[in-house]
Amino acid sequence: MALRFFLALLILASLGHVGALLPKLLTIAHVVPGQARALVWGLLVTVLTAVGACALALVLVARSWQRQGARSLALFLAFLAAIWGSLLRFLNVEIAENSVTATFLAQGWAG
Q1: What is the tens place of the pLDDT at every residue in 37-73?
Q2: Helix, coil or strand: residue 92
Q3: 69/60 Cα distance (integer angstroms)
Q4: Strand ranges, E, within 1-111
Q5: What is the average pLDDT score of the chain?
Q6: Which of 48, 43, 8 has the alpha carbon at shortest distance from 28?
Q7: Is 14 buried (19+), middle (13-18) or exposed (0-12) by CB count in 10 A?
Q8: CB contact at 8 A, 32 and 93
Q9: How many Å apart are CA 111 and CA 65, to the nearest integer?
């Protein structure tokens, strides 16, 4: 039962970690020019997929806990969402008059 509770907390933390990116990406979507909107929509689809992975993981924890494969899949989905959330937190978008620059930054190091 303790592992089930811990995994549910991990999934909810991953959901919050990824869900907090939605306002940032929606703000970027309204600012970028039309040519760069496809990139922003791709990022939004990635975030929504990670949110869906968290929802599926919660369903697996709640309904299929007796199956060993469901436990492993729920853990995998939670970590997958956490990794996408962490990667997209380093996204830095700079918008100039005629250009849009998107880089992944980690403490001043360009990825």
Answers
A1: 777 788 888 888 888 888 888 888 888 778 878 888 8
A2: strand
A3: 10
A4: 91-95, 100-106, 109-110
A5: 79
A6: 43
A7: buried
A8: yes
A9: 38
What is the amino acid identity at position 16? G
Instruction: Write the pLDDT tens digit of every residue in 68-102.
Output: 788 888 888 888 888 887 777 777 666 667 666 66
CA distance 44 to 42: 5
Q: Tokens standing for 94?
A: 């700079």
End-to-end CA distance of the chain: 40
Distance CA(17)–CA(108), nearest Å, equals 22
Q: Using the 8-state DSSP alphabet, how is residue 68 labeled?
A: H
Of 68, 66, 81, the closest CA to residue 13 belongs to 81
- Reduced to 3 states, what is the DSSP secondary structure of residue 111? coil
